């Protein structure tokens, strides 16, 4: 059994650790590229959101590399991610991949027997201790990865020589594919973190801060958001992302089955604008916009895939947040037609505006909030 | 003076309007519907809503603006879920907030939450919350709600009998004598597409004028559909999607229809999945399938041409079966 799974930012490193620790042979899909998206776009429904198209591309490229089992995850509504698993299965079947095995890891919804059977199918073991241990290690890897990400957000706008952080960052992604198991991977991450910390800083840089909010897949997968963290970093912007995979995993795997949540403060911040959850991450999008506003960030950028239902609701509410907290807001919508030049221009214009605004405020010339 | 409550003629309107109309009228409020969808409502809606929203949501904004200066309250409930473990589109869930933040100077909204995803136990409490905008008397509210439920059931029966609530008014019952060679075509889609004659460019009327007997999902036996839908590999968590996928399985099995027309709006997240599965399953049973995607730029002439071509194609398929394989 050679297992493959879809990409989402750095998540592949943790999933690889999980499968390695369980002794399951796995194939990491090639890095997302134009080809990946082309394959996905060709075979997916026209109006589905972008993540599904990229996922389909990932599967096909892995199958070409020899994978014979696909792990698909899902949720249970109201966002359409909940039905991804079934649709993806239908698409792959209609493409003629009849021998492909699917393991659908959806939340159990009462059917625990079926759920654990699927988990055992995937893990090749019924030893719960072994599974829990592997899972704990994968979670630790995710936290390390996010530590590395956060460091790169901090260092990029401050590095004295442009591009130095990315030398280490890209090197890590090249080497990690060959690493095996938790030990090797975590050493590699720690090495990269150490190297990044040593990158020389330019203390005279005027760094502005932007919060990135929006749909989780688009803000985490660099191919889909056209490397927004690198683009902004090179413009001298430090960013913070509202959603991180490590946090998402803790929330959904460990806390929510117990009825707990780590996002209470964010929900409270969103409450005056959006009272309940409406699926996806709309409530977090609004909550974090408020949080960034309160923390004195210079701006927020919302990124989401075209036709994403929860984010459309958030988009219609965010202008009010923008006014209430006087924090400039830019909305970027991505799909397979997004052109990089136009996207960069908008980012540059937004950053220019923020700098000018900051300067004005500094000089005491700014009279109105906007 | 009685309280004036405005009900926008959009989204859930065609599913539930008799219920809320009866409910509030029993309580002594005056109900005002917004005008039937027209050019002005469309334009206002498009102007006052985020560009990315789908046509029905934009139309709904237009309807709210239409009511804005006429009423004391506008009825925009927060519809989360009407069945256990099922949801409605996320845009429905966030509708009151969307409307409130997009349109300035609105009268207060009746934005009580309807959420039965855990259980239906809170039904009477929810009804009380809705009624409390007019009266605080729980006995009166309970009586009004029971009458409203009766009106709602009757409405459902009527629709099932083939009376279509186009623009919220019943069309004459379908002709009892249907010519022998008439085609029967299933027209599926959200109720706010099917029954909004401006938004859907009167597709239902056009089909009836061409002597086609029309079947809509609301006419079908819900028990049967529920049963079929429960055979799905994963539970469909959208109430509308479950109804449609059940219908798709039924059509495939029974083969009693000659073709399917699916009406969807551009950017509909639910249809991007349901429509695709529906189409795959229909085609695998070789039932002719036509997808009409509608947005604010759709031209009526194009829709007419496609409808005519589709109907002709079905005729040829029946008449020339032996010459060439029209099944492909």
From TrEMBL, chain A:
It comes from the Bacteria. InterPro entries: Dehydratase_Activator_Redct. This is CoA protein activase. It comes from Alkaliphilus serpentinus.
UniProtKB/TrEMBL annotation, chain B:
Transmembrane segments: none annotated. Residues 4-219 form the DUF2229 domain. Pfam families: DUF2229. It comes from the Bacteria. InterPro entries: CoA_activase_DUF2229, Dehydratase_Activator_Redct. This is DUF2229 domain-containing protein.
């Amino acid at each position: 059994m050679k297992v493959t799974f879809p990409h989402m930012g750095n998540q592949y490193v943790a999933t690889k650790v999980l499968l390695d620790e369980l002794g399951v042979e796995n194939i990491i899909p090639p890095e997302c590229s134009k080809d990946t998206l082309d394959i996905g776009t060709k075979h997916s429904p026209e109006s589905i959101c972008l993540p599904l198209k990229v996922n389909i591309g990932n599967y096909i490229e892995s199958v070409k590399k020899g994978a014979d089992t696909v792990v698909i995850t899902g949720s249970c509504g109201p966002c359409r991610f909940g039905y991804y698993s079934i649709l993806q299965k239908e698409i792959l079947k209609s493409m003629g991949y009849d021998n492909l095995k699917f393991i659908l890891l959806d939340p159990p919804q009462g059917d625990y027997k079926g759920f654990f059977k699927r988990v055992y199918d995937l893990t090749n073991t019924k030893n719960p201790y072994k599974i829990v241990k592997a899972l704990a290690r994968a979670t630790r890897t995710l936290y390390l990865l996010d530590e590395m990400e956060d460091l790169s957000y901090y260092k990029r706008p401050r590095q004295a020589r442009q591009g130095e952080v990315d030398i280490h960052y890209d090197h890590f992604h090249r080497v990690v594919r060959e690493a095996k198991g938790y030990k090797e991977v975590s050493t590699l991450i720690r090495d990269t973190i150490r190297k990044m910390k040593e990158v020389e800083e330019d203390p005279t840089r005027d760094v502005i801060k932007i919060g990135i909010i929006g749909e989780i897949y688009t803000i985490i997968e660099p191919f889909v958001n056209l490397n927004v963290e690198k683009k902004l970093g090179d413009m001298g912007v430090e960013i913070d992302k509202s959603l991180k995979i490590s946090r998402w995993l803790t929330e959904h795997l460990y806390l929510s089955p117990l009825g707990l949540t780590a996002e209470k403060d964010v929900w409270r911040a969103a409450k005056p604008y959006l009272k309940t959850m409406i699926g996806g991450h709309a409530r977090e999008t609004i909550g974090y916009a408020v949080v960034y506003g309160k923390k004195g960030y210079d701006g927020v950028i919302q990124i989401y895939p075209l036709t994403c239902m929860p984010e459309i609701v958030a988009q219609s509410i965010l202008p009010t947040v923008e006014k209430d907290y006087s924090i400039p807001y830019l909305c970027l919508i991505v799909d397979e037609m997004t052109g990089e030049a136009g996207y960069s221009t908008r980012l540059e214009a937004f950053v220019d505006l923020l700098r000018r605004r900051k300067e004005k405020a500094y000089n005491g010339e700014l009279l109105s909030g906007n | 003076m009685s309280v004036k409550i405005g009900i926008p003629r959009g989204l859930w309107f065609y599913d539930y309007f008799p219920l809320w109309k009866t409910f509030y009228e029993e309580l002594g409020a005056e109900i005002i519907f917004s005008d039937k969808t027209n050019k002005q409502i469309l334009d206002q809606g498009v102007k006052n809503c985020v560009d990315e929203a789908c046509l029905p949501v934009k139309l709904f904004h237009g309807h709210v603006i239409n009511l804005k200066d006429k009423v004391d309250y506008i009825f925009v409930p927060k519809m989360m879920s009407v069945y256990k473990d099922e949801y409605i589109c996320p845009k429905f869930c966030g509708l009151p907030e969307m409307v409130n933040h997009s349109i300035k100077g609105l009268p207060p909204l009746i934005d009580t939450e309807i959420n039965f995803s855990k259980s239906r136990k809170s039904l009477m409490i929810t009804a009380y919350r809705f009624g409390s905008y007019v009266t605080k008397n729980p006995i009166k509210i309970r009586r009004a709600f029971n009458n409203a439920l009766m009106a709602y059931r009757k409405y459902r029966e009527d629709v099932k009998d083939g009376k279509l609530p186009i623009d919220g008014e019943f069309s004459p019952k379908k002709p009892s004598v249907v010519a022998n060679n008439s085609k029967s075509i299933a027209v599926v889609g959200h109720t706010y597409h099917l029954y909004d004659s401006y938004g859907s460019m009167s597709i239902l009327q056009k089909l009836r004028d061409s002597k086609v007997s029309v079947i809509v999902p609301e006419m079908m036996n819900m028990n049967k559909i529920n049963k079929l839908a429960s055979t799905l590999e994963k539970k469909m968590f959208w109430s509308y999607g479950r109804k449609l996928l059940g219908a798709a399985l039924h059509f495939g099995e029974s083969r009693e229809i000659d073709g399917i027309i699916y009406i969807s709006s551009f950017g509909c997240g639910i249809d991007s999945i349901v429509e695709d599965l529906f189409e795959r399953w229909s085609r695998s049973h070789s039932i002719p399938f036509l997808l009409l995607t509608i947005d604010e730029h759709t031209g009526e002439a194009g829709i007419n041409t496609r409808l005519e071509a589709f109907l002709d194609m079905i005729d040829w398929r029946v008449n020339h079966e032996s010459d060439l394989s029209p099944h492909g």
